[in-house]
Amino acid sequence: MKWKGRRQSGNVEDRRGMSSGGKTIVGGGILGIIILLINVFGGENAQMITPVLEQLNQGQNQNTTEQRDLTAAELEEQAFVKTILADNEDVWSKIFEENNLQFKNPNIVLFNGAVQTACGNASSASGPFYCPGDQKVYMDLTFFEELKTKFGAQGGDFTTAYVIAHEIGHHVQTLLGTSAKMRQMQQGKSKAEANKLSVALELQADFYAGVWTHYNQQMNNILEDGDIDEALSAAHAVGDDAIQAKMQGHIVPESFTHGTSVQRKYWFMKGYRSGDIKQGNTFEELGLY
């Protein structure tokens, strides 16, 4: 991905290396994997796991991180994230303006280990997530090594760009009122029916990531050979069916909350090919209204 030399956003807060103190959930081992499966690409579901995180946190080791300077590699990562966020700001401001709407920029918080948010405390094991309470995306960038080594994604810079765009998609849903409407629709529904609505929300965020890619390619000519393959590899790796098959050996469709690998790739590519935000009504296409 061609990203260097372009505008960087001022809306990135880098907490890596800062002293955190207090109790944190150990990110490795089976506990970390379980939480990762619950909340990978967490989006609106981040709020749902907070009680789980806090309960599991009881009895875990207390970890204190001393403050340190960021490494050269971390500063490079920071510059990349700032550029991708700036791209999202520019693209979504343009799309909203084209639809007579006003876009409000989100923030991204980079952290190591654990973080406090308006949605509660979380650990790096929860994966990247968007908190609608403070309209911030939270990311521990070590997640991407886990995505590659444990779940078979290709890796690469466009994998990270896709994930960021997916989380910004949840911010778009918050601004448009889609997230609030989804939560209202979930009230009184069975667990399986509520999960279907969650799937629609997540697939729409994948669609918005594709729309962002379409616009950004037109505006900045960002793509290099293999970039779309990286995004599709990541989308495949985090499909509910792929994760369940790998981790538990069988698939339980009624427990899906993010969509299958095929669905996630389909909606990303639909957004990328069309560049038309109006073609992303996943709720209607899935027969939910």
Automatic annotation (TrEMBL):
<feature type="transmembrane region" description="Helical">
    <location>
        <begin position="21"/>
        <end position="42"/>
    </location>
</feature>
<keyword id="KW-1133">Transmembrane helix</keyword>
<keyword id="KW-0472">Membrane</keyword>
<dbReference type="Pfam" id="PF04228">
    <property type="entry name" value="Zn_peptidase"/>
</dbReference>
<protein>
    <submittedName>
        <fullName>Neutral zinc metallopeptidase</fullName>
    </submittedName>
</protein>
<keyword id="KW-0812">Transmembrane</keyword>
<dbReference type="InterPro" id="IPR007343">
    <property type="entry name" value="Uncharacterised_pept_Zn_put"/>
</dbReference>
